[in-house]
Amino acid sequence: MAAQIDFDLKPHPTIPKPDGPLLVCIMDGWGANLEDEWNAVHVADTPCYDSLRKVDNRFRTILAHGTAVGLPSDADMGNSEVGHNALGAGQVIDQGASLVDKALASGSIYEGEGWQHISKSFATGTLHLIGLLSDGGVHSRTDQLYGMIRGAADRGAKRIRVHVLTDGRDVPDGSSVRFVQELEEVLASLPGVDAKIASGGGRMGVTMDRYEADWNIVKRGWDAHVLGEAPNVFTDAGTAIKALRAEDSDAPVTDQWLEPFVIVDEAGKPVGPVVDGDAVVIFNFRADRVIQISKAFEYESFGAFDRVRWPQTNFVGLMQYDGDLKLPARFLVPPPAIAGTSGEVLSRNGLRTFACSETQKYGHVTFFWNGNRSGYFDEALETYVEVPSDKVPFNQLPLMKAREIAEAGKEALRSGRFDQVRINFANPDMVGHTGDMAATVTACAFVDACVRELLDVVDELGGRWLLTSDHGNADDMVQRQKKTLKPILDEEGKPVALTSHTLAPVPVAIGGKGLPEGVAFREDLPKAGLANVAATIFNLMGYEAPAHMQPSLVHA
Ligand SMILES: O=C(O)[C@@H](CO)OP(=O)(O)O
Ligand SMILES: [Mn+2]
Ligand SMILES: [Mn+2]
Known about the structure:
Blueprint: E1 22-27, H1 40-43, H2 47-53, E2 59-62, H3 80-89, H4 96-106, H5 113-119, E3 127-133, H6 142-154, E4 159-166, H7 176-188, E5 194-202, H8 215-227, E6 232-234, H9 237-245, E7 261-263, E8 279-282, H10 291-298, E9 314-319, E10 331-333, H11 342-348, E11 353-358, H12 359-368, E12 382-387, H13 402-415, E13 420-425, H14 427-432, H15 437-460, E14 464-468, E15 506-511, E16 520-521, H16 533-540, E17 554-555
Parallel strand pairs: 1-13, 1-14, 3-4, 3-8, 4-5, 6-7, 8-9, 9-10, 11-12, 11-13
Antiparallel strand pairs: 2-15, 5-7, 14-15, 16-17
Helix pairs in contact: 6-7, 7-9, 13-15
Bound molecules: 2-phosphoglyceric acid and manganese (II) ion (2 copies).
C-alpha cells in the first residue's frame, strides 16, 4: 500500500494557506449525546462549546464508534486507540479486535510463528495467559480468550494458568464476578488439562499502566503473575474478587481498583508462578496498557523495577504492540497496517508539528495519531511535549493538567515555529471513567474554558482551528434501561454509574479569524466519521486532501 501513496501536498485551489498556525484540539471522551441531567457535557457550564454549536455550517457531529472506526460491529463503542488512529491516518483501518476475530475464525492464528513459539511449552511447561478479563472490546475480549484457551487445549497444552485483570471501566462495575465464573467454567471444561486462574488484580493498579505513568503498577502485576507474590492470597478467584470488592464494608472497592491477589493451593503455595520454559501470552489486542509488561518479559536489560527473577519464557503478544520497537518480537496476529498517516505527510512536506498532552493521553496524540508508531518521522520538524499526569484517581483532581497543556499550546501557537499545533485534553475521558458525575461536570467546564483561551490565541494570530473529540464518555454517566433510557437504580435507589465510553457521535467545529468565509461543512456526508477529519485538516492548512484519505468535511 505504501508504494501507492502520493505524499506530495498540492496547494488547495481555493483555500489559501493561513497566515498563522492551525490548531487541532481534541477533547478526549467528549460526545454529543442525549441532553439530560446525566450528560456531564450538557450539565457543565460550557460557554465556548455552546457558542460554537450555534455557528451554521461550521459545527457538526461525526461517527466515532463501530465500523466507522474499523471495529467489528456497530455495537462496539469507540476508544482512544481506534479514535486517534482514524483521526491521524484519515483512513478506516481494520482494527486489532477485527483482525483477531478473523484470525480465530479462519484458524490462521494457529499457523503463525507466534503460535509455534508458545507450542514449544505445551507438552512440558505451563501456558500463561495475562490480560484484561472483559467483553468491553476496548483492550481485549473474553470470547477471544476462551477461543485461544480451547485452541491451546486442542493442540496439546497440558497446563494452563490465567492471570486476570478486572475491568469495571469498559464494562459495568461488579461484572468481574460474572467473568471469573464464566472463565472458571471454560477452564473446567477442558478434558485432561490442568487449568486454573493463578493471579489477578484491578486494571488501574495492577499491570496495565500506560505511557510509563507509574511503573509500580506493572511491578505489582509482575510480583503477582510471575513471582506468585501479593498482599492477598486466596484459594480461588471467585472468593478473591468478592473479598477484595468488600461490598458490605464501609470502603467498598470497584473492579478497576482491586488489589493484586495470588491463588494458592491448600499448602499455601502459589498455583501458577511463571518459570523457565513456560509460555506466556498477553491476550490484550490493544497496545498502550501492555507495552510495559511486555518489556518486563522480553528485555534482558531492564531497569524499571527489580524483577527479582526473570524467567526464560516463550513470550508472545496477541499482537505486536509497537512496530518500531518490534515489541514483542513474536505475536499471534499481525497488527493493523497503518500507512500514510497525516503526521508522515506533514513531515515529508517539511511542515512543522507540535503535539502535547499529559501522560495519560500523550501517546494518544503521538503514538496512536501516527499509526501506532513511537518516535518521530523527522525530529527536526516535530516537537512532542508530555506534561506529567497526577497519580491519583482523577475525580480527586478533575482539572488534571489541562491548565499546563493549554499554556504549552498557547506558547507553541505564539512561537511561530509550527504549522500544526495538536492538543489533547484528557479530562472528560479520564474523569468520566471514574463514574463521578460532579467531578466530570467540573472537568468538562474547565476544558471548555481552556479551549476558549486557545481559540482566542489562534484568533490573535490570524490562524485557524479544528476542535473535535475521539469518542464519547462524559456525555453519559449513568447506566440506563434499554427502552425508557431512565437510569438503572441500585438497591438503595441510587442511579448506577456508567464508567465506560459511549456510542455517541462526537462534535467537530472549525473556525478562526484566518478561515476564509466560504469554508463550511459539506452537506453530502451525513455518515462521516473520525477518518474524515485528517483530509479536513489538510484543507484548513491550505492543501488539497491526500487522495488516500477519506473525503474532507469541508468545501470552499
Ligand atoms: O483507559 C483506557 O485504557 C481506555 C478505556 O479502557 O480509555 P481510552 O480509550 O480513552 O484510553
Ligand atoms: Mn479517548
Ligand atoms: Mn477512555
